[in-house]
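Re: weekly structure request thread

Next one in the queue (296 aa):
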Amino acid sequence: MFVPAAFAQPLPSQPATAPTPTASTIPLPRTVGYALPGTRVEPLRSAVNGIEYLLYIALPPGFDDTGNSHHPLLVLLDADYSFPIAHGIVGHLRDRNDLPELIVVGIAYAGPPAYRLNRTRDYTPTRVVEGGYGPDIQRHSGGAAAFAEVIERELLPYLRARYRARGPRVLVGHSYGGLFGAWALLERPGLFDGYILASPSLWYDDHLLLRREAASTAAQRNQRTRVYAATGALEINAERDMPGDLRRFSARLERERYPHLDLRTEILDDETHNSVFPRALSNGLRYHWPRADVPR
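Done, posted below.
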C-alpha cells in the first residue's frame, strides 16, 4: 500500500520531533473587545454650540433604576484617556471604602478623532492664535464660555433627571482641561462644588488667569468650593514653569481671602506633564471625599 510521504513513519533511528510552534504558525483565537464594567455611552448634541458630544458614564454598584438612589457626580474632561483611568481608580478606592459611590461621567466627542481641536475650542477662555497647538488649531480657541453653558444648561440637568445625580459635583481637568476648571472657578461660581486641577495650563494667554480680575468675585465668596490642584515638579523648561504658575495662582486665591474656598495645592515629585494625571486624580478624590466621610 502506498503511504504518502507526509504520513510515512520515521525510521527507528530517526525519532520524530514535533516542530516548535512560533507566533506565525499559531492561529489567533477569535476575540471580543473588553468593556469597562458598569459603563455606557450616550450621545449629547448641544443646542448651545452645535457640537456632538458623547457621554461616557459609569454607574456605581448601588445605583437603583427604580429612582431610590442618589449619588455625587464626578465629571471628567478629555474623556478618551481620563475616563478609563478614573474608572479604575474610583472603583478600586470605592470597593475598599476609601470613596463613596460616585456617578462618573466623561465628556467625549462624536465623529473623527480631533483631540487637539476639540479641547482647544472648548477649554480655552479666550481666542489666541499663537502658541498652543499652532495657528491651524488655535484659530478655534476661545469657546470656554459656550462650553460652560453646555454643562450648565444641558449636561447637568440631564444627569440630574436621568441618573439623579445629587450632592457634590466635582470637575476634573488636566492641562487645558485644568485651565478650563481654573477659569470656571473664577468666572462661573456655582457651576461645580469642587475641582481637581491637574497641571492647569495657567500660562495660557500670557497668564490670563493670574492677571485678570475674576468677574464674579462677590458671588464666589458666598459659594462653598473645594479645590485640589497639583502639578509635576518636572514641568519646567525654557518656556514654562508650571509649578511656579500654580504657586502664583494659589497665592492669588489666598490673597483674595475667599472665606468659603478650601484649597490644597501640591507639587508632585518625579512627575512630568504626561505622568501627573493618575496621581493627581487619586490625591484629589481623597481630598474631596476624606475617608472619615465615606459611608460604611
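Residues 36-291 form a domain with the Rossmann fold fold (CATH 3.40.50.1820). Strands lie at 39-45, 52-58, 71-76, 103-109, 165-174, 194-198, 225-232, 261-268.
Next request, please.
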